[in-house]
Task: structure prediction
Amino acid sequence: MTAKTLYDKIWDAHLISEDADGTSLLYIDRHLVHEVTSPQAFEGLRAAGRKVHAPDKTIAVPDHNVPTTLDRVDGIVKNEESRIQLEALDKNAKDFGVHYYPVDDVRQGVVHIIGPEQGWTLPGMTIVCGDSHTATHGAFGSLAHGIGTSEVEHVLATQTLIQAKSKNMKVEITGKLPAGVTAKDITMTVIGLTGTAGGTGYVIEYCGEAIRDLSMEGRMTVCNMAIEGGARAGLIAPDEKTFEYVKGRPHAPKGGMWELAMENWKSLFTDEDAHFDKVLTIKGEDIAPAVTWGTSPEDVLPITGVVPSPEDFEGGKVDAVKRSLEYMGLTSGMKLTDIQIDTVFVGSCTNGRIEDFRAVADIVKGKKIKEGMRAIVVPGSGLVRAQAEEEGIAQILIDAGFEWRLAGCSMCLAMNPDKLEAGERCAATTNRNFEGRQGRGGRTHLVSPAMAAAAALTGHLTDVRDL
Amino acid sequence: MDKFNKVTGVAAPMPLINIDTDMIIPKLFLKTIKRSGLGKNLFDEMRYNEDGSEISDFVLNQPAYRNAEIIVAGDNFGCGSSREHAPWALLDFGIRVVISTSFADIFFNNCFKNGILPIILPQEDVDKLMDDAGRGANAVVTVDLENQVITGPDGGKIEFTVDAFKKHCLLNGLDDIGLTMQKSDAIDAFEKQYGAATPWV
Result:
């Protein structure tokens, strides 16, 4: 028998048919739906008189547009277009009979946070969503990736997706991480090395001791940003930590069904001699707290570095860096730790889980954020919010001067009232530092939650290890 | 979806690398529940000042390129989000072909679903077409999908490759869903066998 990668195994288990040219039809186990990329798909179904093929495997939740301020409980969505989009999801979810977590449900949250939280995300599955950060679910050893709205409609109608198989890439992080270095620093460091197109055409499997040592929350952070490296998906083989996390979740299998599932899940690993088309190995001890300086997620440096110069690069990157530095208002050669910050955002599908807020609370406990700093913490779900309140984390953050919000995508993409004004500069635990991503003219530095907390205290990008 | 066979039009040069989906269509325009009407906001923040006036040196604002149907772009065009609003905005503006050395995966797929042909070429061919595109209104390029060949303004020809299934769908304006539904027996059979083997799914 040919040795297979984890990706090969999941692919084969879901392959319905394959044409001579490699065009394949894959079965989809879970389809997650949010309000921004689905209205046109549901409209397409209506126009063609089609039904949702598997409403039981389809889960809808509003997240991108929802306000996160506390007055949301009064049903206030001031932006008319946002309200229309939210109402459309509400109607579509009800008309087509899919699982649905409305805005006022405590289980509502960012789609990639609530999938795992509710036990919809299970090892070995195929999971899609009209959202590029679907890669997050790969942390469970499931093949998960973003799709466009036409494909959303295709999956709604058929529970399948037309695909061509990607190549296999292995990213191994060996050894232990130094103190102060987190999952976010791993995933950013990898993108810094591969570039944003380095993973194009590949599915990445992350492995190695440093990955094994991560919690499930950390593994989700790593896989979440696989897409920023261009990969179709990121995967981590499930282990005892995975099973422990999944067990007892509302939609996880129970009793005899759990035993049956476990038997299957224990085969979800890459065979010893399996072939990878590309391999990247990084020593865990070489990774430092990472920060982006430019407007592409590949513009990553250790916090100890200095802002680069366009001449440090080649080809098209030279002009791109010139443009980035101008947009970011930075000068080549300045120390990254000298970059002043006026806004801190902690949240998103990258870093909106309980562990992320614990990390912030550990650093700011008993302290105050820099005067004049706007610091916002947005939990990834209503349940994360409740847990953080129960653990006393929320109070620590509030006492330090952070705003404590309701769940949503918030300032990760500025589709809701939370955004940067032109020229504002934010240390953000999110995933994209594109021009205008957090608001037109806004400047984003991607960091880990611990690094965001450090910047909130000092008012500038700060090496968390120095605190 | 409109059939795609041959496009002859002005090619606009956008040599910047990593042109991302937030540049192509910023998030505030994702609030629509329709597919149409996004062309006026294509490249919004690069194309307009905050007061809505045009930024005159942006390529698609220049007289020669206002009716461009082809974009020749730097590496890794369309990186970032899965938003199909990006190809919808391109199409609504009138763009039918994007040529680059590489594209982001999801954007690449989304183009084919909307009658846009993304073409991957080696660096030297992209450089040549980028030069051609720099000739303004004289930068008329023909893209022939059937024969998989691009003809430049000076008559030079560049061949390109395209996935056979995607080509077939574009040439015939085929809807994927209809094609997949023809396989409903195979899907049903798979669901039965797979459901029995993995009842927890």
